[in-house]
Amino acid sequence: MAAVAKSGLPSLSTTHPSSESLRTGKRAGVAIVAGDALTLLGGNTVGLASGAAANAAAVVYGFAATSAAIGDAVTLIANRAMMHYGSGFTTPTDFYLSGTVPGGLDTVASTGGTVPIATAFDATQIICVCNR
Question: Is this model's pTM higher than 0.90 or not?
Answer without folding.
Answer: yes
